[in-house]
Structure formats: structure tokens, C-alpha cells
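Check out a protein:
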Amino acid sequence: MPQPPLLPDEALIRVLRVARFDGTGALVLGGIFALLAAAAGDFPFAIIGLLASGAGAVELHGASLLRQGESRGMTWLVTSQPLLLI
């Protein structure tokens, strides 16, 4: 027998958990790689690391907006993914 669909509160909790994990990971890893690349003198890769960190910050901002009950936080979450891919 299939499971019933998630309640909206449960879905929101899962979205916030994944966004917090993904955003923090992108922020920390992008920052570390940017620092390592800048220390090695590889400035194009340092800029890429900074952009990855920025995408993580955008995702964390979207998660905080959703936590406050603002629906525009979802737009921030969706926008962060193409930024991270670029």
C-alpha cells in the first residue's frame, strides 16, 4: 500500500533541512577552495570558489525567508541552483 502524501509542515521541514545542509556545504567548500586557489595564485579558480560561496549564501537566505513564512524564499532557493551550476 502506498504511503500518504506528506503534510505541508513536514514538507517544509524537509525543504529547510536540505536547503540548510546544501547552502552551508556550498558556502564552506566554496570558501575553502577560493582561499586555496587564491593562495596558489590561481585567481580565475578563486573567483569560481567565491561564486560557489555566493550561491550557498543565496540558498541560506532563501531558507531563512521560508522559515519566516515568506513565500519569496522559494524563489531564492530555486535561483541558487543555476548559480551553483554555472
The mean pLDDT is 93. The helical segments are 8-39, 43-67, 73-85. Residues 4 and 57 are 34 Å apart (CA to CA).
